[in-house]
Automatic annotation (TrEMBL):
GO biological process, one term: pentose catabolic process
Molecular function in Gene Ontology: aldehyde-lyase activity; methylthioribulose 1-phosphate dehydratase activity; zinc ion binding
UniProt domain Class II aldolase/adducin N-terminal: residue ranges: 15-201
Protein name according to UniProt: Methylthioribulose-1-phosphate dehydratase
Phylogenetic placement of the source organism: Bacteria, Pseudomonadati, Pseudomonadota, Alphaproteobacteria, Acetobacterales
Gene expressing this chain: mtnB
Needed cofactors: Zn(2+)
Keywords: Amino-acid biosynthesis, Lyase, Metal-binding, Methionine biosynthesis, Zinc
């Protein structure tokens, strides 16, 4: 049993994480136990998925509270192994209310095969999913970082680039991080980005 203040706000956050996990699973973006999801409540509490569970079958008890430093409020809980990649986003921008991480086929393959340090997405109508984009006639960069099992170290590599990120970022051979002001926005951005990555992958396959 978690040492948790289960009020209406926590209930909403937990339900949103459970439903987003189901949605990501339906789309094939969180195979096995991959992926992690979090949201920040209006009072500043942070809810995140417990480590190691299947994100398509989450229950309320798989959503735990962490401090802004990423420490489980109940020491008996084990937060996502990638918690620091979530908390660094919340610390970076107070407007961020939800963070999603998935391991889709397109994110995994494209991030492994791109030799430069970013994937450029240009000319797509769906780029307008991202705030501030009003036309397809634009080009946005999705930064790439090398995978690292030391998440604290990976977070220090990601940190200086956050200020310029418009879409999210990819970790090579691993997956994508996307965020938004709330869970609905984060999911829409993830869905838009996954669509664009699937298009890029299909174009490469067509050329091959
Ligand atoms: C299926 S292995 C995936 C993990 O290593 C990790 O990358 C991941 O996304 C899930 O870790 P978790 O600790 O459950 O949040
Ligand atoms: Zn992962």
């Amino acid at each position: 049993m978690q040492n948790l203040k289960v009020d209406e706000s926590w209930g909403n956050a937990s339900r949103q994480i459970v439903q987003a996990g189901q949605r990501m699973d339906q789309r094939g973006w969180v195979p096995a136990t991959a992926g992690n999801l979090s949201c920040r409540l209006p009072d500043g509490r942070i809810a995140i998925t417990r480590s190691g569970g299947h994100k398509g079958f989450l229950t309320d008890s798989d959503v735990i509270e962490i401090t802004p430093d990423g420490v489980p409020v109940d020491p008996a809980n084990r937060a996502s192994a990638e918690t620091l990649l979530h908390t660094q986003l919340y610390a970076h921008d107070p407007a961020i209310g939800a963070v999603l991480h998935g391991h889709s086929v397109a994110a995994t393959i494209l991030s492994m095969d791109e030799p430069s340090d970013a994937i450029t997405l240009a000319g797509y109508e769906v780029l307008k999913v991202f705030e501030g984009q009003t036309t397809h006639d634009t080009s946005l960069e999705l930064p790439l970082f090398h995978n690292d099992q030391d998440i604290a170290r990976l977070a220090t590599v990601v940190a200086p680039k956050l200020v310029d990120m418009r879409l999210g970022y990819l970790i090579r051979g691993h997956g994508v991080y996307v965020w938004g002001k709330d869970m609905f926005t984060a999911l829409a951005r993830l869905e838009g980005l996954e669509f664009l990555l699937a298009c890029e992958l299909a174009r490469l396959q067509k050329k091959a």
